[in-house]
């Protein structure tokens, strides 16, 4: 037991040095490149020091011989680095450490976007643009699983107003952690 406590303390100390990086290792949940050290009802992710464990709450039989499990999940990595979309400043923000998760939950997908003027359709008497045309770029796509595990995609889609060139509203990309493939047509 003393060895386990010493290992947990050593891993926790090492994780402070890793926390300054901005990569998949800074995200909550279970990254694809986990080196797990088993503990009761969970594991410690050794490279980043995240303690992940699940407390079973209930198990419900379902049709087709399946079972839906409900569990309380804890992740010690609750601080994530986020960039303010307006100022561009990076700040550490806390996420909840405890989550109730069922087998039937879906995650969610999101992305970032930015717009800039790419042309002008009409100008006034002083030469000021009164009917600007815009180009909107969508990037930083990700899918987040219910347990907080995030999968990022190197995908950039561009929507341009007529008069600014061709839009690229179709695309596909593999996740940067090789965990999932995401493709399709986006209605923007």
Task: Outline the structure in words.
- The protein has one helix spanning 2-18, and strands at residues 36-39, 42-45, 50-61, 67-75, 79-83, 90-94, 98-102, 108-120, 132-144, 150-153, 157-160, 170-174, 181-185.
- The strands form four sheets. A five-stranded antiparallel beta sheet has the order 1-2-3-4-7. Strands 8, 9, 10 and 11 form a four-stranded antiparallel beta sheet that branches. The chain has a two-stranded antiparallel sheet with strand order 5-6.
- The protein has 188 residues and is mainly beta.
- The chain has two domains: 1-105, no CATH class; 106-188, no CATH class.
The N- and C-terminal alpha carbons lie at a distance of 56 Å
Care to count the β-strands?
Answer: 13
Q: What is the tally of helical segments?
A: 1
The largest sheet is: 5 strands, antiparallel
β-strand amount: over 45%
SSE blueprint:
Blueprint: H1 2-18, E1 36-39, E2 42-45, E3 50-61, E4 67-75, E5 79-83, E6 90-94, E7 98-102, E8 108-120, E9 132-144, E10 150-153, E11 157-160, E12 170-174, E13 181-185
Antiparallel strand pairs: 1-2, 2-3, 3-4, 4-7, 5-6, 8-9, 9-10, 9-11, 12-13
Write a short abstract of this structure.
The chain is mainly beta and 188 residues long.
Question: What are the defining features of this structure?
Answer:
47% strand, five-stranded antiparallel beta sheet, 2 domains, single chain, four-stranded antiparallel beta sheet, 188 residues, disordered C terminus, mainly beta, 13 strands
